[in-house]
Amino acid sequence: MDEFLEDMDDEQVDDLLLPEDSEETPAEIVPGLYEHFRFVADKGQSLLRVDKFLVDRMFSATRNRIQLAAEAGCILVNGKPVKSNYRVKPLDVVSLVMARPRRELEIIPENIPLNIVYEDDDLLVVNKPAGLVVHPGHGNYTGTLVNALAYYLKDDPYYDPSDPRLGLVHRIDKDTSGLLVVAKKPEAKANLSMQFFNKTTKRKYNALVWGIVQDDEGRIEGNIGRDLRDRMQMAVFPEGEQGKHAVTHYTVLERLGYVTLVECRLETGRTHQIRVHMKYIGHTLFNDERYGGHEILKGTTFTKYKQFVQNCFAICPRQALHAKTLGFIHPTTGEEMFFDSEIPSDMEQLIERWRLYANTKEL
Known about the structure:
Blueprint: H1 2-5, H2 13-16, E1 28-30, E2 33-40, E3 48-49, H3 50-55, H4 63-71, E4 75-77, E5 80-81, E6 87-88, E7 93-98, E8 116-119, E9 123-128, H5 145-152, E10 167-168, E11 177-183, H6 186-197, E12 202-210, E13 217-221, E14 223-226, E15 234-237, E16 247-256, E17 259-266, H7 273-280, H8 303-315, E18 321-329, E19 336-340, H9 345-360
Family: Belongs to the pseudouridine synthase RluA family.
Active site: 173
Domain RNA-binding S4: 48-113
């Protein structure tokens, strides 16, 4: 079991779990054992070996380490130990247990500026800038949105940043900008989390992608899971055995030379979903380093053009993705809430540069 655990720090919890699949229950569930991770299989889950099921969901774990954990009796399904060849069924609850409790990560309040676009007694909506990590985790223990919220709400007697029943309802990547909803009360988080789970929330993103997207609109469907060759990336598994069901709808907003501005609507919310799905159809996000968008993927071989693109990379030094709109039903009033945010200046300047290029085509 030690071999399995050697690179599985408790502080990596939020890198390992996807919000829509996890239930925060670190309590002791059987004598002498504590639950560290829990995953609930989707209703449409096909029969899949538990070691394959877990390796797709756990950031640092290899299949061999998961098999060792199963041999040690540390993998439970519906509360009972299973071997690594157990086949996960729909709605199975798969847990990893250890002989020690989870160490909780202390949330330190930090005075970090927040762009709050709406707030009431139950929730607030934040427009997150690119570069801000959402939650403390591996490599980012301070300076996150959660630390900023802990400071902003430090005088709220009902808000405890360490209480998993409060706080972030969903997340966006560090270098993605845009709107997030935060729950200030347990009832609000439970209600909003259910809306995300039931896919009734309304979320649209703007993205600049490489290449000319031919169809004015389209639907991308393909299971998303950890890339089998690079665990830092996600990948699409069209056959459905690996990963989790994911659907993205896109609409072309503007074609600009060798790039396209698109609006993406999430039907599901998987890790890196838009980034992975757009790459899957041949249109990697502009300057998305993790997925190869920081290379010149389309265009000419002229030196002037190459310099133009390098200047564009410098203007927007991150993936060109912004969570522009967010809609949900207010958990207390039942009112339909809808928020729209401006495209941040780095993306706006980037789009304008490509618009000018598309109109002049001087390079």
